[in-house]
Structure formats: structure tokens, C-alpha cells
């Protein structure tokens, strides 16, 4: 049974639905690829999924080890490549909250980024850069 479904709405726009929650996301082709750029593009979602997955795995680690990562802010930069058109690079910058993390906690949190399912699922040709900004 399907977990998600999608419907083409025309004009390069797709409505995606998560069946269990009935949550919807609209995607739009980017301006540089014949679209209006009025919503996430499919490749934007892919890059955002990497950051979201990374943060989810960090959150699981944090919950299991009583480490507070609430408030982490993430910036995502996607760089497209040509011939063929594809995601060439995704940079995920995590601005960690101003808390006293031990070196061991920092290492474990950074390790989480490289073990998330999206990171492990993307083709090796997609450069994935994770930057952690620790305030202390």
C-alpha cells in the first residue's frame, strides 16, 4: 500500500499528500527550469529532506542521551549541476543552541549527520557538506 500520493495540477505544479496524516505539500518547477518558483521544487525538497533527516537523527540521539538540541537552526544551500541537470552539492549548516556540549556530545551529534538515511541514500556524486556552528 502506498505511503504517499501525488497529483499533477498542471503548469508544472504537483500536490503531494502523506496518506496517514493527509498533510499536503505543493511543488513547483523552479524559474530556471520553466517554472514559476512559487513553492519548493522537487530538488529543494530533496535538499531539505537531507537537513530534516539529519536533524531527526540528531534529535533521536539527543533524546536518548538527555541532550537538549531544541532551537537548532539549519540553513540549506542546494547547488545544481548541468549535463545532466541534477543536484551537485547540498550544504547543511547547523547553528547549534548556546549550550555547554561536551566534546563527546559534539562528536556524536556530528556523526549523526553522516548516518541519516537520506545522506546514505543519495548518490555518492552528490557532495554533502555538513557544517556545525557551536556557540561555545
UniProtKB/TrEMBL annotation:
Coiled coil (residue ranges): none
Pfam families, alphabetized: OsmC
Matching Gene3D superfamilies: 3.30.300.20
Family annotation (PANTHER family): OSMC-LIKE PROTEIN (PTHR39624:SF2), PROTEIN INVOLVED IN RIMO-MEDIATED BETA-METHYLTHIOLATION OF RIBOSOMAL PROTEIN S12 YCAO (PTHR39624)
Protein name listed in UniProt: OsmC family protein
Amino acid at each position: 500500500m502506498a505511503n504517499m500520493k501525488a497529483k499533477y495540477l498542471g503548469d508544472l505544479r504537483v500536490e503531494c499528500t502523506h496518506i496517514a496524516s493527509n498533510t499536503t505539500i505543493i511543488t513547483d518547477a523552479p524559474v530556471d527550469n520553466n517554472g514559476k518558483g512559487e513553492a519548493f521544487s522537487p530538488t529543494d525538497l530533496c535538499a531539505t529532506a537531507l537537513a530534516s533527516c539529519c536533524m531527526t537523527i540528531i534529535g533521536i540521539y539527543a533524546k536518548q542521551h538527555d541532550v537538549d538540541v531544541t532551537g537548532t537552526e539549519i540553513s540549506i544551500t542546494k547547488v545544481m549541476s548541468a549535463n545532466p541537470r541534477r543536484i551537485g552539492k547540498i550544504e547543511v549548516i547547523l547553528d547549534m543552541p548556546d549550550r555547554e556540549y561536551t566534546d563527546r556530545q559534539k562528536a556524536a551529534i556530528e556523526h549523526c549527520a553522516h548516518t541519516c538515511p537520506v545522506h546514505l541514500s543519495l548518490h555518492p556524486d552528490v557532495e554533502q557538506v555538513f557544517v556545525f556552528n557551536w556557540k561555545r
